[in-house]
Amino acid sequence: MNDDAPFDSVDPAARRRHYSWPARPAAGDRAHHAGLDALHRIIDGERHLSPGAHTLGVRLAAAEEGAVTMTAEPAEWALNNGGTVHGGIVSGWVDTALGYATASIVDEGVGYSTLDLTVRYIRALRLEKTPATLRAEVEHAGRSTCVVQVRVTDTDGRTCASASGVMMLFRP
Fold first, then answer.
1. Which residues are CB-contacts of 130 (< 8 A; sequence separation ≥ 6)?
2. Is 148 helix (H, G, I), strand (E, B) or coil?
């Protein structure tokens, strides 16, 4: 892994979290985030996920054309007052998965951003049932938008959330 890889340390006893991330790449280096090659370099540890994805505890496990599988391992800081994973955290995971699924089908140099996101919470996600698995699949890719479906499951394979989103594409 790169020396500038993100670092995350959680001390549950002290209720403390510390993390760091590398400097934002120069504008010319940011264009190299799309395509299966870029995703496989993340899986192989040659590159890292975005600082936001890292902060949310998401990891890229697999990538193929039109689909990615990610895992998300929250800690106590991600819980709501009811003791389950906060819906906003799950929504952040889903938004991340939308982006990486989109990256699997666009060419290097194509940018993208979330245009629409709908998350349906089906059952509470409990900390003891994580890491969660996110499977994101591209349903349609057009000239200017990409539609992605995401499913979030717990360690028992039960669906905790399903989502759909539309990514706006910025082609050169």
1. 72, 73, 74, 85, 154, 155
2. strand
